[in-house]
Design goal:
It contains 11 helices and 18 strands. The chain has 3 domains: 2-23 and 124-258, Rossmann fold (3-Layer(aba) Sandwich); 29-121, no CATH class; 267-349, Alpha-Beta Plaits, CATH 3.30.70. It is of the alpha+beta class and 355 residues long. Strand 12 and strand 13 (228-237) form a beta hairpin. It has helices spanning 2-10, 39-57, 67-74, 107-114, 150-163, 174-179, 182-186, 191-197, 239-258, 280-292, 319-326, and strands at 21-23, 29-34, 58-59, 80-89, 99-105, 120-121, 125-127, 129-137, 140-143, 167-168, 204-213, 216-225, 228-237, 267-275, 296-305, 308-316, 332-334, 344-349. The chain starts with a helix and ends in a 6-residue tail after the last strand. Helix 2 packs antiparallel against helix 3 and helix 5 (150-163) runs parallel beside helix 9. The radius of gyration is 22 Å and the shape is globular.
Length: 355
């Protein structure tokens, strides 16, 4: 629980502990190493920083082959809102002049520039991914323990921030320890893993194994999302690179699913018919939730019909994506079979959770 709280704090998540969707802060800010504080080295570092930002907010195949993305990187300084060197040397072997450079980009200017691209943008409300991580060292396999595995904890935290992914970690309480083992996580038959993951209410699950070998790390990953599994592996590499190989795969799939075309979609509208909302506090909660969603441009209460509250919602993107996002935050639960072929979506308001 402490490490999960650490991840939530790092990303500035503005939600209670039960959310399975998180608002990620700092997507347009990053740190890079500049060889020196000279202007040429600073320009190189700023371009590198923009590549990092683009790869965690844009979606599409071969991101950096996109001509508009290439143009943005070439003109990277024009999008800089703020930059600052650290006052101390960076830990770069053989280069005492190296400095860490923090760069904050202007998201509005950048997205306005990128709207002519074929790429889509993944906004800052993102589903949490449950990470089951097994560590193999000297032939022994154990679950990842952040309270003792500091190097691994630092790597996971760093790469999660780099890729803009909110992560959720298993509680590893006594009940969980009795029902699931390392072998269940690594098995080609994931039924037990998926069944245990249901308690967390997530839409995406990443199972991984990282192996320490002589002088490097190796990794194997299985990502479960949308009823499918995608597997990958990382050969001998640094710990950061092995963790990146797993989380980048998660980003690639989720971003393509949830991203929308920046500033380039016609506005759609739909009516939400919501049951179990009984007073003004419930309506206020629904409106606050709707207005927090990245696709939603406006939301307003319309009327009450047969004990159901009616809301008018305007949104960017397609309706299927909106329906998926609506159910992520444990506020609304879709009524199966009643949202097909009409311009009215029917949901039930879920009770507040205080634990």
């Amino acid at each position: 629980m402490l490490f999960r709280a650490l991840i939530l704090t790092i990303f500035g998540i503005t939600a209670n502990q039960q959310l399975v969707a998180a608002e990620i802060s700092g997507l347009y800010e990053t740190e890079v190493i500049a060889n020196s504080q000279s202007e040429p080295d600073k320009m190189v570092a700023i371009k590198s920083a923009l590549v990092t930002v683009l790869t965690r907010v844009m979606a599409g195949d071969n991101l950096m082959d996109d001509t508009v993305a290439k143009s943005a990187v070439a003109e990277a300084p024009r999008f800089v809102k703020q930059s600052q060197f650290s006052l101390s040397e960076s830990a770069v072997p053989g280069n005492s002049s190296a400095r860490t450079l923090r760069v904050l980009f202007d998201d509005v200017a950048l997205l306005n520039f990128m709207k002519s691209s074929k790429l889509k943008v993944w906004e800052d409300t993102r589903p949490e991914t449950l990470l089951w991580l097994v560590v193999e060292d000297n032939g022994q396999r154990t679950f990842f323990k952040p309270e003792t595995m500091y190097d691994l904890k630092n790597a996971v935290t760093k790469i999660a921030k780099q890729t803009g992914l909110p992560l959720l970690f298993p509680l590893q309480d006594l009940d969980e320890q009795r029902q699931i083992s390392v072998n269940d996580v690594l098995s080609a038959y994931p039924q037990r893993l998926l069944a245990m993951s249901e308690r967390y209410g997530v839409v995406s699950i990443l199972a991984g194994r990282v192996v320490r070998t002589d002088g490097c790390w190796k990794g194997d990953w299985a990502f479960y999302f949308d009823g499918r599994v995608a597997q990958s592996e990382a050969a001998c590499a640094t710990l950061d690179d092995v963790i990146l190989s797993g989380l980048q795969g998660v980003y690639n799939q989720l971003s393509k699913y949830y991203a929308i075309k920046p500033l380039g979609l016609e506005l759609g509208s739909v009516t939400l018919s919501i049951g179990q909302a009984i007073d003004q506090a419930d309506n206020d909660r629904i409106l606050a939730y709707l207005k927090s969603l990245p696709m939603v441009k406006s939301a307003a209460w319309v009327s009450a019909v047969n004990s159901r509250q009616q809301f008018k919602v305007s949104f960017n993107g397609n309706r299927a994506a909106l329906e998926e996002i609506l159910g992520l935050g444990r506020v609304l639960n879709p009524q199966d079979g009643e949202n097909t072929g009409t311009n009215e979506l029917r949901y039930q308001l879920l009770p507040l959770r205080f634990n």
